[in-house]
Amino acid sequence: MQTKIILPEDKLPTQWYNIIPDLPGPLEPVISPRTNQPVTPDELLAIFPPALLEQEVSTQRWIDIPEQVREIYKMWRPSPMFRAHRLEKALGTPARIYYKYEGVSPAGSHKPNTAIPQAYYNKLHGIKRLATETGAGQWGSSLSLACNMFGMECTVYMVKVSYFQKPYRKSMMQMWGATVYPSPSDQTNAGREALLQDPDSNGSLGLAISEAVEDAATHDDTNYALGSVLNHVCTHQTVIGQEAIEQFKMVGDYPDVVIACCGGGSNFAGIAFPFLAEKAAGKNVRCIAVEPSSCPSLTKGVYAFDYGDTAKLGPIAKMYTLGHDFMPPGIHAGGLRYHGESPLVSQLYNAGLIEARSVMQNGCFEGALLFASSEGIVPAPESSHAIRAAIDEALLAKEEGKEKTILFNLSGHGFMDMTAYDDYLSGKLEDYEYPAEMVQESLRHLPKVEI
Q1: Which class in CATH covers the domain with range 77-108+237-443?
Q2: How far apart are CA 32 and CA 49, in angstroms?
Q3: Which position has the higher pLDDT, 232 or 209?
Q4: Which of 45, 307, 339, 352 could form a disulfide with 326 if both were Cys (CB 3.0 to 4.6 A apart)?
Q5: Which of 104-118, 182-196, 433-447 is predicted with the least confidence, judged by mean pLDDT?
Q6: Which residues of 245-261 are buried (b: 16+ CB within 10 A; e: fewer)?
């Protein structure tokens, strides 16, 4: 029985898959918060290089991966796909469970798949520094790595609760030369205003984005980089799903269901979008986005225009959202803290082409421990959401007595996230379902967009 399915380097994708031309209808326009009209390229050129803006709106199905980016990808790509024989045995399921393991990257997650090209395109444009936000730290460490590789500076605004919960993620960023601030910080107007309102604020991704965007917009040598949500970010991640399709060919199998955790959407997009292209061509495959019950943008949010950040500095996009001033609870132990969802993922969900479910964090950590004890890898807390859903699908197959092929994205390892596991093992983690009335209160502040 084959366990490791390894693609040779010459099978590394040469192009990214852009799902925009295959969407069910055109994307809604992105709106400027200053004019309440569709955003102009000039407004975005203040924080993004032209090449990434072109990818953001491209209707070209396949986008060539620069050779310099592919050469760096080869440090860890193609990433392995594993058959989870021991997990299957532990569950007593007739299902076949596979996982695509993105924890083999230098930063330990899928995030370098987009950090490397973003740094590359910014370097070509003459940018000397990138500013960004990070929640649990995977994105911040990945962009720090990428900037280090291209000789650029990096400034990271890290959500304060994670800054203190995950000190070794901060250390990793600093080892690669980044400057890291807990957000809200005293470095920006957005951060100072938030601290005036709540000196003990735990922070949020929306607020950290505000700080990073403000930093980039007020320094000529600095651009902003985002680790999820945007179209070009989702496109860069599709190397994951493309490789998985080739790996299934090697073992003569094909998934009935593809699963990934979902915060801003890049993880899910990376593995699911190439399979959705195959679904459109006639393949029978389900794709499930899994989010935490404490940050349930798809399952409890509304599909509406909203700001991408708390301070309303960034563009307004149509997405599933909990409201731009949403603050995740401090007891939330994983990442996946963003208030909204990728416009691409949102449109697919609204059209009924993908599924979504929310899961409680204790159930996620229970699944993560079972996975670690059977497969030997400590998963990132974010990835445990996908593991939980995969286990539930496998147990359903057992109950129904049906064979089923399950694929999930193990988007990173949890070696830098042991505080959350320590809290779980000590019985300190609480399940928390974000209250509907708090969602409704946040949604009262959505922008009024007329187009």
Answers
A1: alpha beta
A2: 18
A3: 232
A4: 339
A5: 433-447
A6: bbbbeeeeeebbbbbbb
Sheet holding 405-410, edge to edge: 4-5, 81-83, 96-101, 405-410, 257-261, 286-292, 355-359
The pLDDT of 276-290, averaged and rounded, is: 96
Output the CA angle 145-80-228, nearest 5 degrees.
45
Q: What is the pLDDT of residues 317-347, one digit of tens each?
A: 999 999 888 766 554 555 676 788 999 999 9
Return mean pLDDT, the chain: 93
**Quick check: do 16-65+111-231 and 77-108+237-443 share a fold?**
yes
Residue 331's pLDDT is 47
Terminal-residue alpha carbon distance, the chain: 57
Task: Give the pLDDT score at 445.
Answer: 79
Percent of the chain with pLDDT over 70: 97
Amino acid (1-letter code) at residue 282 = G
What distance in Å separates the CA atoms of residue 73 and residue 355, rounded to the nearest whole number?
A: 30
Residues 281 and 113: their CA atoms lie apart, in Å, by 26
In angstroms, rounded to a whole number, what is the distance separating the alpha carbons of residues 353 and 357?
14
| 64 vs 51: CA distance, rounded Å | 12
300/357 Cα distance (integer angstroms): 10
Neighbours of 151 (CB within 10 A): 10
Each domain of the chain, given as residue ranges in start order, spans 16-65+111-231, 77-108+237-443
Q: Are 236 and 110 in contact (CB under 8 A)?
A: no
Residue 363 and residue 391 in contact, taking contact as beta carbons nearer than 8 Å: no
At residue 258, the 3 state secondary structure works out as strand
**What fold characterizes domain 16-65+111-231?**
Rossmann fold (3.40.50)
pLDDT, position 337: 67
CA distance linking residue 260 with residue 244, whole number of Å: 13
CA distances from 258 to 13, 151, 255 (A): 20, 37, 7
| Angle 15-225-66 from CA coordinates, rounded to 5° | 25
| Pairing relationship of beta strands 302-307 and 316-321 according to DSSP bridges | antiparallel
Q: What is the pTM of this model?
A: 0.94
Residue reference for tokens 């601290």: 195
Omega within 30 of 0 (cis) for the link into 292: no
Hey, what amino acid is at 269? A
Alpha helices in 133-265 (DSSP H): 138-149, 160-165, 167-175, 189-197, 205-217, 231-236, 239-251
d(C-alpha 307, C-alpha 296), whole Å: 17
**Tokens 């029978």, located at residue:** 284
